[in-house]
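ping. complex inputs:
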Amino acid sequence: MGNRVGVVASGQAEFGIRSEVDVREIAAESFVEAIGSEGNLDRGDIEFASVGSHGAGVYFEECLPAPLICEYLGLNPIGAQRVEAACATGMSAVHVIYALIKSGYIDVGMALGVEKMTEVPTLDMVDFIGRPGSYLWEFESFGPTFPGYYGIYATAHMDRFGTTEEDYARVAVKNHKYGSMNDKAFLDKEIDVETALNSDMIAYPHRLYFCCPINDGSACVVMASEDKARELSEDPVWIGGLGSGTSSVNLSNRGSFVGIESAQVAARQAYDMAGIGPEDIDVSCLHDSFTSAEIMAYEDVGFCEKGGGKELIREGQTYVGGDYPVNLCGGLKAKGHPIGATGVSMIHELNKQLKGEVKSSRQASIDNGYALAHNVGGTGHYAYVTVLER
Amino acid sequence: MPKSITDIREICLKYEIPVEQIKTFWEELEDGRLVTSKCSDCDNVMFPPQSYCQNCLSKDIKWIGLEGEAVVKGFTHICVLPTTFSGEEPYTIVVAEFKKHPGVRAFAWLEGIDKEDVEVGMDVKLTPKQREEGPPYYVYKPV
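pong. complex structure:
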């Protein structure tokens, strides 16, 4: 009897300004797609739901999304919880289900990430997303916004390593290119470097096209113990390694602004558990809430030395055909970043990538059979990394 | 029928934030002085101040003067402002490390400088500042 945990099914709602659906309805889209993707899987197999949402009761109206979604999808009376880990909420939900299965508490569980971010005015959202962080010591007097928090990292990275605004624009070009090939992506138009460099300044050095959009979405992953996974799926993808970390909430308590320590720790844990290294990764989803963050992430997960991230994008190494294809779904930048859904959506994307089931123009070559998902909450306040294997 | 319903149960949130355990910091700031917490057991200096030492968890904390001279580690200019800052002009935020307190840093606005002149590595000084209404705060000024 094997002891692994497998991904048996996954689905994703179309990301975007989804004002025609409420939180339950957009959750149902990813759930129905996931359940329908495996003929042997029935919703009655699911024993526990971990629902990831950052904004419940704050920037959308429903306070208890977990039981609410269970009710809507006819899943009562299974156990459920809501989890929150800022922008890493989705992958924290995945890690919870992994642990519940691994412990023997359940055999089959689901992680469902969901967010409605467009029910309040945009600048109110900017305000809500600027508050985490330390409210008293950062937001109350100094009003940081999220692009601003990452801007502090970006200026430090530019100063230390010579990374440029053009490099940040190049990442936007790549992720828009792949977003244009993904039917579920919010931003589906290709752009060029000039468009990104000439867009409005949001928080220096982050221009509009360097920032992920505010949007709605959901994603769902059903996971199972090894024996159950083989029963439910012809071809499960396995969770090979996980890692997690935190960094200080107050940016002033961090010693470096050129890398995110919690993400470095999480990546190292995930590689060690999987028994592999960065060179074994065929395809990855890295947390590109800002295009500067993607360049830092190349370094933090070990695709290059610290400071070498700019070379990877300049050389095209993170495109299909390069050494480390990154964010072939469009990333947070173009696919969108409905906060609670993002980490689950990364697992969905990599599940499909490892099986060779995405559109050929954005399909990575799967040689070693390993994929990596890197989901960062806040500016590293939380970090979750997952290695998937086939 | 409308495609959406505009919620009518508006709520106004204003937090009463407890600062009793670190009231010395706020009292001194009101009088125009910057202080912070230092652990009596392990000498760890903390900013923001805390009533427990994060290094050894001692609660034996004393207050020391904070020398404001600092070096910028990273910065940003906030150009799209959050709703609750909509009355402000675009502002610059920096994290800078205190020269007299190695490893101790603060997060604050940098005022009195053109945006084009802000750079990593520049010298600044953290300075107490009062509001007409509301708690005192502090900002960096160029040196």
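Chain A has a mean pLDDT of 97.
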